[in-house]
Amino acid sequence: MKATINQELFIQNISPPPIPATNGVSILIADGILSVASFGEGVMGRIPAYVLRDGQMFLNANQWSKVVSSIENSKDLYTDLKI
After folding, report:
1. Residue 10 in 3-state DSSP?
2. φ/ψ of residue 13, rounded to 5
């Protein structure tokens, strides 16, 4: 999966605490949307995305933490997300 996302929108709507990863998350990138759902908390977030390669997968808490850190630490407003 690959998409370009707005870092600010991600931080406001998806990165913890809005979407905690206690029991992992399901991530879907398709049709111009990045959607993340937390299994343990029953919380979901969606933001617009420029989708280059769609797909869906499960990320455990450790994997989700690495994705969040890479986006939050990016120096660019628009960040490539590759999973």
Report:
1. helix
2. -110, -20
